[in-house]
From TrEMBL:
Record PANTHER family: FUMARYLACETOACETATE HYDROLASE DOMAIN-CONTAINING PROTEIN 2A, FUMARYLACETOACETATE HYDROLASE DOMAIN-CONTAINING PROTEIN 2A-RELATED
Organism (species): Streptomyces violaceusniger
Name of the protein: Fumarylacetoacetate hydrolase
Domain of life where this protein originates: Bacteria
Family note: Belongs to the FAH family.
Residue span(s) of domain Fumarylacetoacetase-like C-terminal: 80-281
GO biological process, one term: carboxylic acid metabolic process
GO MF term (any one): isomerase activity
Keywords: Hydrolase, Metal-binding
Length: 293
């Protein structure tokens, strides 16, 4: 069934077809599902079946959709996977060989945020990374790529904001910490189920800073496709319902530019993936934020 699911104030909500209103899952299902988002993913097959037959009157029962009120579609996953160097054009701009297995790190859930809001800059070397994000719909253990899409609840838009100085500090790089400051993992605006997407293996992805296009690519550039990632990751450990996978970023990051370009106070970062939606963050300097308190 065609469905878009989001979170509002920590509760699962369904989005109206025209994206103007929402209904609370717990209330609409009379307590059968939700309100906690993880509980919805834990019962994903049953939830999809219910939602496909539920008569939801958004006009009568819905409340206005305000993007600033939304959180990440899966806000407290058991596991978060993030894949590095997974676009051919990004590997090319980095001057690195294509990996033979997916370089994997994590973004800690404390960095999760909703689709629209402020991004507090903790340093002068914060970079952008537009990403397609996958949310797992059922336990996946040693699955094959051929059947992997059936384990996916849906797709959303993400940003893998990265503080490059900490990320690349040696002798051992701190990828996970450098990418996990508060607000460094905005996602949304909602989760889109696969039946709403014409070709989930070929989605245009774009990042703009102050209206200037910085990244423009397609998920067909992925070195490891979503099904291949599910196969590779689930060969090592089980993927659980609600788990989140950041699939990598295309070319155009600030750190690869000459000269390098990083985010500054007042910058507006917009991230778009076709068929899913948009993110928007306004950059705020951490020092000024502390002084304002």
């Amino acid at each position: 069934m065609h469905m878009r699911i989001a979170t509002r104030h920590g509760r699962s909500v369904l989005i109206s077809p025209d994206s103007t209103s929402l209904v609370d899952v717990g209330e609409a299902s009379r307590g059968r599902f939700g309100p906690a988002p993880r509980s919805v993913y834990d019962a994903w097959a049953e939830f999809v079946e219910w939602a496909g037959h539920a008569s939801i009157d958004f006009a009568a029962d819905g409340i206005p959709l305000i993007l600033e009120e939304l959180g990440a579609p899966s806000p407290d996953p058991r596991q978060v996977f993030a894949i590095g160097l997974n676009y051919r054009d990004h590997a090319d701009e980095s001057g690195l060989d294509y990996p033979t297995s997916p370089p994997t790190f994590t973004k800690f859930a404390g960095s999760f945020a909703g689709p629209v809001g402020e991004l507090v800059l903790p340093a002068a070397t914060v970079d952008w990374e537009a990403e397609l994000v996958v949310v797992v719909g059922r336990r996946a253990e040693r699955v094959t790529a051929a059947g992997a899409w059936s384990y996916v609840a849906g797709l959303t838009v993400g940003q893998d904001y990265s503080e490059r100085a900490l990320q690349l500090a040696g002798p051992a790089p701190q990828f996970s910490l450098g990418k996990s400051f508060p607000g460094f993992a905005p996602q949304g605006p909602w989760l889109v189920t696969l039946d709403e997407i014409a070709d989930p293996d070929d989605l245009s992805i774009e990042c703009r800073v102050n209206g200037e296009v910085m990244q423009s690519s397609s998920t067909k550039q992925l070195i490891f496709s979503v099904p291949q990632l599910v196969e590779r990751l689930s060969a090592v450990l089980p993927l659980m319902p609600g788990d989140v996978v950041f699939t990598g970023t295309p070319a155009g990051i600030g750190g690869a530019r000459k000269p390098a370009r990083f985010l500054r106070e007042g910058d507006v970062v917009e991230t778009t993936i076709s068929g899913i939606g948009d993110l928007r963050q306004l950059c705020v300097d951490a020092t000024r934020r502390e002084n304002d308190r």
